[in-house]
Amino acid sequence: MDFGKLNNWLQVSANIGIVLGLVLVGVQLKQNSDLVKIQLLYEESRRTVDLELQVVGERGAEVWAKSIEEPENLTLEEVRIMEALIWSFIETQRGTYRLAQLGLIEEQDWKSRVEAEVSFWFGNGYGAAWWRNYAVGNKGTGNPAMPQALTDAIDARMKTLGRSTREYIMGPQEFLSSPQSDQ
Asked: Which terminal Cβ of the chain has fewer Cβ within 10 Å, N or C?
């Protein structure tokens, strides 16, 4: 038996094993880095939403309803509460978009959320006006807080809104009061 050849093959095998081990370590480091990035993005988003929800306090639903029924009569305090509510919605949209950019969810997931949720938040006079004001101030600025693809998707959805927020919210009441409802 030629121990020299066997020794050479063992060294080559050991070197291949070391290289494969290093590749695996590199892959694990990349995965850990991605997980840390995701965690930091979530924490950033959560802090923003938590801060905004502190502003909302206990009057969120009342102010939100008033913004639909009589948006022109909101006080400055109520406008700030609405800003906090809507900004929390925008932050969740942005978070979903960023998850897709990291490859953790499908591209269609954030687009589906835009399709489903924009009509609820912006399908009323105040919400639509808020978005127009925000979009005008941020168009073409390259604002990293609001990626252009997300802004474009919201703009596109705004052009196709069907039912208003009020119609959506009051739908169950209208269904229950109709003669053909099953009670």
From this structure: C
